[in-house]
Specification:
16 helices; about 45% helix; Glu/Phe/Leu/Val/Trp_DH_bac/arc; six-stranded parallel β-sheet; Rossmann fold; Aminoacid_DH-like_N_sf; Glu/Leu/Phe/Val/Trp_DH_dimer; about 350 residues; oxidoreductase activity, acting on the CH-NH2 group of donors, NAD or NADP as acceptor; six-stranded mixed β-sheet
Length: about 350
């Protein structure tokens, strides 16, 4: 851990820099908390502008995973990893296997999975060097792509948000704007179409838009995120990278609900209060996008798809509990979610004072 990490006062238990000259691997693994168990979180492969940008991202993401796992009722702590580089040009078998060796060196304190820039096939390669990789293919004993259950969990969170806002979880006729229709956003569109929602989408990748339109030709497409935010929609679903909601966008947003799959949707502290003051319900991102984490965590027990889907369905009830607490205490939902997660981490961590013999 460097002085720079300490200077951020991040509260992390451990931050590990990984460098393998032979393969060009440059990675950072951050373990925020192991209060509930080993730290589980995906590996992001991304061309960061510099090491500080990568560090900021992994610190924020790993903390978010601790809260996500706690709120989802999992006996897992929070961690995350980033590999610095363009996955299209830097990703090789040797690099991924070198990364797997670094994961293994932590002895199970950190369990990895897929994230932006990494896929099931990559986890199969990483798993050749470590016992602590999830999100593997079904052929290798894993659960496969976690995007499906992530999208399903977001859909459950959106139903709970609709019930809290309009008195019914039914999304039929609701106009939903989906920003980012890649792995998760595309599947979310499928759930929304089945529910009878009117759907508006945008994505920087025209191919992603074309894939959605091929299956759902009635979907409306707008040019960019700014246009979608200013559109007349009931629900705004950010499903791309984080930071989409800042002071400006919070002021322009016309939706009454924000519920999407992207991590760290709030650009900075205080945006949640701006949304609340405008009467916009923000479904905490780390709550509603926990379906994928539920899937890969179930893989640790020997994957049972029915058990994992049932657990992801419970995100509907968890979201309702968060909204109820927020109303009771007069705070934004993200504050209520934080309090519930922190309470669970604290209460379970206190059990360590009870001596047990195994």
């Amino acid at each position: 851990m460097t002085d720079g990490v300490f200077g951020r006062e991040s509260g992390h238990e451990q931050v590990v820099y990984c460098h393998d000259r032979a393969t060009g691997l440059k990675a950072i693994i951050a373990v925020y908390s192991t209060a509930l168990g080993p730290a589980l979180g995906g590996t992001r492969f991304y061309p960061y502008s510099d090491e500080n940008a990568a560090l900021d991202d992994v610190l924020a993401l790993s903390k978010g995973m601790a809260y996500k796992n706690a709120l989802a009722g999992l006996d897992l702590g929070g961690g995350k990893a980033v590999i610095i580089g363009d996955p299209a040009t830097h990703k090789t078998e040797a690099l991924l296997r070198a990364y797997g060796r670094f994961v293994q060196s932590l002895g199970g304190r950190y369990i990895t999975a897929c994230d932006v820039g990494t896929y099931v096939a990559d986890m199969d390669v990483v798993a050749r060097e470590t016992s602590f990789a999830t999100g593997r293919s079904r052929e290798e004993g894993g659960a496969g792509d976690s995007s499906e259950l992530t999208a399903f969990g977001v859909y459950q969170g959106m139903r709970a948000s609709a019930e809290h806002t309009w008195g019914t979880p039914d999304l039929k006729g609701r106009r939903v704007g989906v920003e980012g229709v890649g792995k998760v956003g595309r599947l979310l569109v499928g759930h929304l179409a089945e529910a009878g929602a009117e759907i508006v989408i945008t994505d920087v990748d025209e191919r992603a838009v074309d894939r959605v339109r091929a299956v759902h030709p009635s979907v409306e497409v707008v040019d960019d995120t700014a246009t979608l935010i200013a559109s007349d929609v009931d629900v705004f679903a950010p499903c791309a990278l984080g930071g989409v909601l800042d002071d400006d966008t919070a002021g322009l947003l016309r939706a009454k609900v924000v519920c999407g799959a992207a991590n760290n949707q709030l650009a900075h502290a205080g945006v949640e209060k701006l949304l609340q003051d405008r009467g916009i319900l923000f479904a905490p991102d780390y709550l509603v996008n926990a379906g994928g984490t539920i899937q890969v965590s179930d893989e640790l027990r020997g994957y049972d798809p029915d058990r994992a889907r049932l657990k992801a369905t419970s995100l509907y009830d968890t979201a309702k509990a968060v909204f109820a607490l927020a109303d009771e205490e007069g705070v934004p939902p993200v504050t209520a979610a934080d309090r519930l997660a922190e309470r669970r981490m604290s209460e379970v961590a206190n059990l360590r004072s009870i001596l047990t013999v195994r």
